[in-house]
Backbone:
């Protein structure tokens, strides 16, 4: 395997960015993963009291790891543990292994609750992140020389910089605009020749809405593809269709999580789920009740292990995201495993209402599949003051003037009932009354007493 590109060499062979790695046989990939996992676990055991204590408490010695299946006997790492560890051993916790002299960047988690968890990148980490991010951009159709308009936030939020570094490896021209200046975004679409656009799905819909208001025809701009991440939704039929028509592009999902990597999985042109860079990540799907791995294809919690991360490696990190796995061959020729349908929901956001269970993303798919509604919605959970029962209300925006245009409310209720197997209340607000966001949207509000 090549370790770097020669100066001036154009990367990629037209189909794959790194053909040898991306098409490795599953057996060779598993062997590579085992070798890297054993080295990573030994390194964590020797260099991190945080991991050593966890391993010993679970009765685990690094020599016990003989196959990838043995990973299931290692303890899981939860975000709260990382927070507690950083509070007890400030500033970065004892899971940081690399000496600070080798650290290049710091990136905190973006969660809205509690103290942020800091993760660090060494020089090598930044190099590897840039490399597999370039691979992900390439597999969705980005090519050397393309103009990339990067509307992921720069600064502490990690995806902006990862894409920026990857664009350099891809020999692309970057417009580092970040998640701001909506009118300028559209101006660059029209005048700069942007071919590839990146943002959160929420922000892309906000831009599409502004384009409609300003009567900018998506067919008149040269934009070809977009990768959307930072929140789920790109792979739901309703949202994908809205982004694709609104911007006149092919839309792809890209996934990252700050404790793992900014951009660690993305769709290929076959749109068959999020492909992982499995040479750097070991993927498990875990049953949230039994904490055992589920069979391939079954839904559970995504748990990820860093195979090459130096500064703050995660061994079995509980992402709290729900997904399922498919390692069968993909039409694109890549052998790396996929999450069909992308992230199916946040485990915390699972709404349990009158015996039914659903994720906000299922509501999103209904709302965005209806022509008379805007892209925005909010799910409010509250308590009925008289009966004390839970009430679930889906608030959406209608695109017409009346309060209940021609029985639209009833139509939305019916569609939601079909999708969720339970009927929430529906409130229709006039267009423009729900909050718009350029970053990550909060679509579930719990006001239960
Ligand atoms: Zn594929």
Residues:
């Amino acid at each position: 395997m090549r370790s770097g590109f020669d100066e001036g060499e154009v990367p990629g062979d037209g189909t794959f960015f790194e053909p040898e790695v991306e098409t490795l046989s599953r057996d060779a990939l598993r062997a590579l993963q085992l070798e890297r996992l054993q080295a990573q676990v030994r390194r964590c055991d020797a260099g991190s009291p945080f991991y050593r204590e966890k391993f010993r408490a679970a009765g685990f010695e690094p020599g016990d790891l003989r196959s990838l299946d043995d990973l299931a006997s290692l303890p899981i790492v939860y975000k709260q543990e990382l927070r507690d560890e950083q509070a007890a051993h400030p500033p970065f916790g004892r899971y940081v292994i690399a000496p600070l002299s080798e650290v290049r960047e710091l990136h905190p988690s973006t969660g809205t609750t509690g103290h942020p968890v800091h993760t660090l990148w060494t020089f090598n980490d930044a190099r590897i992140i840039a490399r597999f991010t370039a691979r992900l951009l390439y597999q969705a159709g980005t090519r050397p020389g393309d103009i990339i308009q990067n509307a992921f936030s720069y600064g502490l939020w990690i995806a902006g910089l990862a894409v920026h570094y990857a664009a350099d490896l891809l020999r692309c021209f970057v417009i580092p605009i970040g998640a701001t200046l909506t009118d300028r975004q559209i101006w660059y679409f029209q005048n700069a020749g942007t071919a590839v656009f990146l943002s959160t799905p929420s922000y892309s819909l906000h831009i599409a809405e502004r384009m409609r208001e300003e009567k900018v025809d998506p067919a008149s701009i040269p934009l070809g593809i977009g990768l959307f991440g930072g929140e789920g939704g790109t792979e739901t039929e309703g949202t994908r269709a809205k982004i694709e028509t609104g911007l006149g592009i092919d839309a792809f999902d890209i996934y990252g999580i700050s404790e793992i990597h900014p951009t660690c999985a993305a769709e290929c042109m076959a749109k068959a789920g999020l492909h992982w860079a499995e040479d750097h990540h070991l993927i498990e799907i875990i049953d949230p009740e039994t904490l055992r791995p589920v069979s391939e294809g079954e839904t559970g919690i995504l748990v990820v292990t860093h195979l090459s991360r130096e500064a703050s490696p995660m061994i079995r990190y509980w992402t709290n995201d729900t997904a399922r796995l498919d390692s069968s061959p993909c039409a694109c020729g890549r052998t790396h495993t996929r999450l069909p349908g992308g992230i199916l929901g946040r485990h915390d956001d699972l709404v349990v209402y009158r015996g039914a269970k659903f994720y906000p993303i299922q509501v999103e798919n209904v709302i965005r599949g209806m022509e008379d509604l805007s892209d925005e919605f909010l799910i409010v959970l509250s308590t009925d003051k008289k009966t004390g029962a839970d009430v679930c209300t889906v608030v959406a925006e209608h695109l017409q003037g009346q309060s209940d245009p021609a029985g639209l409310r009833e139509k939305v209720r019916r569609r939601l009932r079909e999708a969720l197997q339970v009927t929430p209340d529906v409130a229709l607000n006039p267009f423009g009354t729900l909050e718009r966001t350029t970053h990550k949207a909060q679509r579930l509000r719990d006001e239960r007493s």
In short: Residues 350-446 form a domain with the GMP Synthetase; Chain A, domain 3 fold (CATH 3.30.300.30).
